[in-house]
């Protein structure tokens, strides 16, 4: 969806972080599967609309392939493809959500309601794709100086230079790392899911074993290494080109996820790797991870993601960034 979303943006500025999440992809799929899933989703929306089900515009950003703010413009285009009229599309982004969530003080342009307004250069009822042509914004009735907001928006904290060593961990001395905060188990339990893993060091390698279970829209579980003194503190690896490690496991495909710019709030770009019973050397160019600032790393995760559900088990060793 990245080209379509960027086209939808028109002249609207697109930040580096928006480009990063737009370029992200869930591991384990391909372009053909994604296209088929998109067609199915649009057909489902068409049927819901025909049945009179209230529809709300939404994007689930910043999941891979989406970007906060920007993707809503693309969502309006998709609703048009699903057969909604311009008036219905505007309602799906304004009055219908307000009504569903009981927000009686907004959703319409009327006296007495909160004046959160966007002025665009065109008639959206006639052509909703004109939504990115933003002329002016008002918040609580006050005009927003968009240029000033861009200047005052908090910037990413500066990245410290990476140590000279390329070796991150060989696990000969246990569950540690050559530098940084170290390792931390992470899973969908943080979002209310039930997937979980346990981590141990066995025979000089890091072993990750557990289970992916239903109960969360995107089951996942794994382990993350943080290169900074604190989790997600960005470290500058811009002079490095390759993430290298050895892996073996149960034959499943797993994912390496790279948190860039210390952006723990976004879904990180990921690259899949497949395990086997024998040790295999894995080399992934850092350029394969679409990030806002290449080489700036806040964390590297090794995880099981989504289908198939069930037990997971893999080992990694001799991790380097070189």
Describe the structure.
The protein has 322 residues and is an alpha+beta fold. It folds into 2 domains: 1-152, no CATH class; 160-321, Sandwich (Jelly Rolls). The chain is built from 7 helices and 16 strands. The chain has helices at residues 2-9, 16-23, 31-50, 70-81, 86-93, 95-100, 146-152; strands at residues 117-120, 134-139, 142-143, 160-161, 167-169, 182-187, 196-202, 205-212, 220-226, 235-236, 242-249, 253-260, 270-274, 280-285, 296-305, 310-321. Strands 4, 6, 9, 10, 12, 13 and 15 form a 7-stranded mixed sheet that branches. Strands 5, 7, 8, 11, 14 and 16 form a 6-stranded antiparallel sheet that branches. Strands 1-2-3 form a 3-stranded antiparallel sheet, with no helix packed on it. Helix 1 (2-9) packs across helix 4. The two termini are 32 Å apart. The mean pLDDT is 86.
Keywords:
322 residues, alpha+beta, Jelly Rolls, seven-stranded mixed beta sheet, 21% helix, 30% strand, elongated
